[in-house]
Amino acid sequence: xxxxxxxxxxxxxxxxxxxxxxxxxxxxxxxxxxxxxxxxxxxxxxxxxxxxxxxxxxxxxxxxxxxxxxxxxxxxxxxxxxxxxxxxxxxxxxxxxxxxxxxxxxxxxxxxxxxxxxxxxxxxxxxxxxxxxxxxxxxxxxxxxxxxxxxxxxxxxxxxxxxxxxxxxxxxxxxxxx
Length: 178
Description:
The chain is built from 8 helices and no strands. By secondary structure, the chain is mainly alpha-helical. It is globular, with a radius of gyration of 18 Å. The termini are close together. The relative contact order is 0.11. The mean pLDDT is about 90.
């Protein structure tokens, strides 16, 4: 593909990702699912163009979403964890299987704890609800979040396989002339 086609494709992915991110304000219970859907377009650009183009889509979506999406928690999740994970996943998957799972779990827990620490201490969000839970709620939330992250990791893997097997030929036919 020519760079002009890649640029146009990247712009379309950023626009579609930003539109998806806007849905998190309309449908608030999808605060975690919508950033995951938007990150699929980062994976798409990595597959079709290169990881650098995928990184460009990630940054473009992060900037546009930070400026226009009212649901800032979804934006924070996209920027801090979900948005760039399809780019890191290829590095984690090169590790031996057990080591890869451990690294992914440590990555998730580290990023999640750091993100919520920043949200609570830098932005001054109240921690009263967490203090009233007698200390069991935070570990429970981390375990549940890790389970969701594992499902997200598996979903990305399966979607990538499906893309290669079913959709990539059709997509490339559209852009064969370019």
